């Protein structure tokens, strides 16, 4: 089954979103590393973002279809959102 134009454009939008979402954490990481301090970091924001990313990623993983044959396809379709959620979750741990 080849993806149609709408499905492919949704996947591309998800990939672009993933890049922007992951890229949004690097300025804060750079500030923390170069200043060797976390002063000025609003930790509640990162705590809530971690909880949101964790629940978002878990909802995608737990929502996988039962048949093994369609799990791989569903995983590929949601890969950009999984990478975005788990990747930002991983980066937020370093920010904290």
Quick gist of this model?
The protein is mainly alpha-helical. The chain is 79% helix and 0% strand.
What does this structure look like?
The chain has 96 residues and is mainly α. It has a domain at 39-95. The protein is built from 5 helices and no strands. The chain is elongated. The termini are far apart.
Structural class: mainly alpha
Terminal CA distance: 43 Å
Per the principal axes of the C-alpha atoms, what is the gross shape? elongated
Helix content: over 70%
**Succession of helices and strands:** HHHHH
Poorly predicted ranges = none
Strand content bin: under 5%
Task: Say how many strands there are.
Answer: 0
Calculate Rg over CA atoms: 16 Å
Helical run tally: 5
Mind describing the biggest β-sheet? none
Task: Supply database-style keywords.
mainly alpha; 96 residues; single chain
Produce the secondary structure layout.
Elements (H helix, E strand, L loop, with lengths): L4 H19 L2 H10 L7 H20 L5 H10 L1 H17 L1
């Amino acid at each position: 089954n080849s993806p149609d134009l709408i499905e492919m454009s949704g996947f591309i939008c998800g990939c672009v979103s993933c890049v922007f979402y992951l890229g949004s954490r690097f300025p804060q990481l750079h500030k923390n590393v170069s200043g060797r301090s976390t002063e000025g970091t609003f930790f509640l924001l990162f705590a809530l973002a971690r909880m949101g990313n964790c629940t978002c990623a878990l909802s995608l993983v737990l929502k996988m279809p039962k048949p093994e044959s369609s799990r791989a396809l569903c995983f590929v379709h949601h890969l950009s959102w999984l990478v975005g959620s788990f990747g930002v979750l991983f980066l937020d741990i370093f920010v904290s």
